[in-house]
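Changelog note: in this version the structure field was regenerated for every chain. One regenerated record is shown below for reference.
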Amino acid sequence: MVPFTRSRSLGPRLTLSLLSFAATLGGAPSAAAFGHAAGAGAGATTSAVPAADAPGRAVAMARAQASDALRRLSARVPPEGAARVRGIYVAFDGGVVDAYAIAACDDDGDPVVVVSDALLVELDDVAQAVVPGDETATSAHLDAYAALVARSRRPGARVLAPPPGFFDEPRDGGLAPRAIAARLDASAAAFRDAVAGAVAHELAHALDGVDCPAPTLTREPADDVWTADERRAAFARSPRDYAVDRVLDAEARAAALLVDAGYDTYGYANWLTYTAAIEATAGGAAPPYERIHPRARERLAIVRARAAAHASRR
């Protein structure tokens, strides 16, 4: 398979909600990660992850989280559906402009969940909106960021990152390092669960609607790379494979897989809240993710209902 595109530098993005985990690569705690990211003054503990390495490592870790999520979720697929997704894997589109995820067939006829680096970046940006224990502030952040993205979106341009301090609360200036670390950890958890939700939705489509001609367990070294021809074929099929009724059915199955696999739906619900706001303002010019996955508010209701039902059985 010929690479569709290789990742370009993501700069400082896709690092904040992963910093607490990235820091552990060198044994540094979460608070240290914040000191490194924020450029803390003399005397502050700094992360063991060099600044030049952090973006690349963050992308690698984000991709690893997507692949790990697919493994966990696939293990919860009932036996009657397992044969349809035998050998399914995650392939990555290294582009940083078009944020999307899609279930498709690769050029060998194997089922695949495709995730673009641009989507991982946007999931990370949204995860930074979380304020632990304050749903009002979190909701306000999601609405504000969606409005900013809607105003600034330009064809062929990357989604605007939250400017420095965009998600700060008035009290943040006086937070202790432990509280700051808790917020970073909450963002990391929200990111992990949002990635799992996005992958679960595509796995659900692969289980019900995306028919691949020759699923096998055979893997080739280049299978993880998505090609231009494969992308064109997947998007050509998307109006059928992602018809509204199929999207809503897939969300119900995805929510069930998420809770069965032990994921919290909170981070994914935040992502759906954000995409619903983007969808509402985009009209007929919705970005790729929202265009392929319509009715975000209905999907959000499905996810919340499933999470509530699961919690009531505990």
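Spot check on this record: The chain has one domain: 16-312. Strands lie at 89-93, 101-105, 111-116.
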